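Record type: ASSEMBLY
Status: queued
Input:
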Amino acid sequence: MVSAVDRTSGVDEKAAQPRKIIHVDMDAFYASVEQRDNPLWRDRPVIVGGKPNGRGVVAACSYQARAFGVHSAMPSAEAGRRCPHAVFVAPRFERYKAVSRQVHAVFREFTNIIEPLSLDEAYLDVSDVALLGGSAVRMAREIRAMILETTGLVASAGVSYNKALAKLASDHDKPDGLYCVLPGEGEQFVATLPVGRFHGVGRVTEERMQSLGIQTGADLRAWSLEELSREFGNSARRYHALARGVDERPVQVSRVRKSIGSERTFGDNITTPEAMLEVLLSLAEEVFDSLELQQLRASSVTAKVRFADFETLTRSRSVSAGFMDRCIMNRSLPYLLERALVGHPKPQVRLLGVSLSGLSPSDGSGLQQLELDL
Amino acid sequence: MKFSAQRESLLEPLQQVAGAVERRQTKPVLGNVLFGCTDSGITLTATDGEIELCSTTQIAVDEPGSITVPARKLLEICRHLPEQARLNVEVTGEKLVLKAGRSRFTLATLPAEQFPESEPLKGGQKIVLPVESIREAMRATAFSMAQQDVRFYLNGMLVEIGSERVCCVSTDGHRLAWSQVSTDVSPETPVRAIIPRKSVGELTKVLSVAPDDGTVELHLTDQQLQATVADVRLTTRLVDGRFPDYKRVIPIDGDKELVMDTQSLRQSLTRASVLSNEKYRGVRLTLDQSVLTISSNNPEQEEAIDELEVDYQGQSTEIGFNVTYLLEALGAIDTESVRLILKDSGSSLLIVPDGSADCKYVVMPMRL
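Status: finished
Output:
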């Protein structure tokens, strides 16, 4: 059942120059921000998340807390039992976002090809960057130093020729680490790693693999694509490549979107404006959350109404100066709905949608002046 | 045209009308001031096509006539001549010659016929108001006008004249200023007019030099306003648009109220503003039992924290503002203490002078 020589390895690295990818990961980010802002907590276990007497979970914890077996996503109550003397703090996302923006400003000194994974993690493609002699390792070293200098926080970085390896590399010497996997070393590097560390191998898959005797990259490497396909279906190709240190995914700069929206189709048509407004308002909340998450601003809100006969109407409102805030959006919806329902005295509505358009990036200040509803 | 006058009697009317002179002169004649000399005196007129300022002064004229000359050049010359200097002005050929002592200036002219003089206003109504009341209502609100907003009707001031009261409102969409004064005047029909931003500035200047106990005559038509104060007359186009229903945005549901010393609050905000983000000017107001904390920080990680003792026992709350909006509102309030009424970090703040219902300032928060 062990496959013979596999000739598909290294497909992405054969022709062109290997890429240079840096994965930067802030160490215990939320907890470190709290420790930085509250010097008295610096040497203490700090747990960011729900209160230990509540039902919340740990969002992040300092290394001092990890020593007690606390980890993120653990119920706060459990964390409280394991580490009763820890400092529990509620997350301050605005604060973390602000720091994250500073970190991104450092990234932009090197490249604009940045793919953020979360507030504290990002991939950078520096293949075509000539700075520091074009050395990705030197750039990673400089990025870590600049992050420390501007934010007082420690980041780990991994350097390699693709995203998967760069991410594994940043984890390799964490915290406060910098590790590089050179072209040609990828397969050897992943061979010793437990498969649970691989991107896309979650807890469930990890257990499945272990039950099949796959513990490490080397174990996985021994399986052919066909064999993996039988066990893992569509994911097989990805695992097959990972075991060989191959990952062709490009670093994706968040694409420019024209609008963000959400719609809901109803099993039974809804007929009262009150019920419709309720749906629109909840869709709008969802859409606005997603707008904020992507650090965007919108200047227009559009409501979409599809009637039982499939006639579809959209009604929009724009803010001529400044940006849409939640309040203006919510106050616009009744008015947009009213306009859409004109001429439909007995509306039968099968779909409702809300979208925000006229998008532009938030300017990075995190400050947003709210508008009077004139 | 020929006359002679003391420097001051020419400088003063020149200064009064110069504000209307077009800066980016689309037509050369709009950069000029019109001299209209008759046997009874001299009328100076300047216009940019939207606002016209006219000032009449009693000067003995030797030879009547009309001519236009570059306004700013003439103003600068007069300004820098010695006080009380005697000026001799005469048009010879296509030049205007001004002599004062051993100084002599020859200025280019354009014929008076090229100058767009306004037609007299037709119809409308005339209202005579005490200078002091309209001046006060305008002063208290002018700072909130929008500037080059696409909502063109916000680039000006709403003036409402109703029975026994004058009310001024301005807003840039982020904050709103409202002020009213009582008068003993009631117009035939209530007035609701939007005065363009530039005209508000010029009218304020005209009113500022008028005596406190003087009156201003307002002639209002659907499209124009003419204000006459003593020898000065301002004519302006009105903004043709609907001012938003401002009453709707003056909050009435604030449940947290503070009375504070105006000066202490201003000083504290001014201190905090030093370390606020230079572009966004955000400050954070944190209200706790008995303490109002004003704090700010900037991208350089600098931080200001300023605490003020307050008589407050309600719920704690935190709310961000553009500090400039707060300072400008407080700057317009002349009572010793102010009342702040707020609800939450997403709702507007109402600032009113303590013990007066004549001014209201509404400021929308800033999300920090």
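Annotation: Confidence is low (pLDDT under 50) at residues 1-14 of chain A.
Annotation: The CA atoms of residues 165 and 245 of chain A lie 7 Å apart.
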